[in-house]
Amino acid sequence: MARYKRGTTPKLNETTIKEIAAAIRNGVTIEKASSDCGISKDTLYRWLDARDGRYSTPLIIEFKREVESAMEEARLKNLGLFRTPDLTF
User: Fold this and answer.
1) Whole-prediction pTM value?
2) Any long-range contacts for 11-17 (C-beta under 8 Å, 24+ apart)?
3) pLDDT in tens for each of the 89 residues of the chain?
4) In degrees rounded to 5, what are phi and psi of residue 7?
5) 46 with 59: CB under 8 angstroms?
6) Domain segments of the chain: what residues?
């Protein structure tokens, strides 16, 4: 049985991963980031909670890695411990 209806595409793709991670890095909550990308918070949490097995695809693994990294970066920014490099000359 197909996971997606014929004619639809999965919502998890490289663009979605980048958009959600960027929003979280900028201090947006997970719920708001998912809503802004047209994904329910339940779906986003299901992707984050996926374990090895049926739902653990390469994209989900990448998604989890990117979101966890973004969350840590946002946490460090809030604590004042993370600085982005100053690229102005």
Assistant:
1) 0.74
2) 11/37, 11/38, 11/39, 11/43, 12/47, 12/59, 12/60, 12/63, 13/59, 14/59, 16/63, 17/59, 17/62, 17/63, 17/66, 17/67
3) 445 566 556 788 999 999 999 999 999 999 999 999 999 999 888 888 887 666 678 899 899 999 999 999 998 888 876 666 666 65
4) 90, -5
5) no
6) 14-77
